[in-house]
User: What shape does this take?
Amino acid sequence: MKKIDLNDPKLKGKYYDVNDEGTEFSIPPRDFLDLGIEKVDEDLSLFVCNSTGCSNQVKITDRGNAEYAWYYLDNLSETDATITIERRWIYEGSWRRETAQCRLYPGEIREVFSFPRNQNPMCCITVCSLTNVNNR
Assistant: This one.
């Protein structure tokens, strides 16, 4: 496997960790440090992975390139959305997953997960709810 370029500008200011060989991320690069990564024995690629939520008003899209997947969450609704996502990837031959929750304002688009494609990344919406603007 090819070594990860730790001087890549995409990694500047991000939290991440790599294996001893420097070829795989053990946690995805992110702007925040999130705990609760879980090793999973099942093949997570066989489980449902929803790319939409809230009656198709919230979507995850992959806007990456051949090397990296860059997943963006897009709130197409006219109200705030609270979304729980599950990030999945393979590390040292086993699936890993973590959950994260975020709130998006109407029309907001946010990058929520970026990862090398050789580690089979997936990003799924697990829970989605829209908030009535009048109840803010």
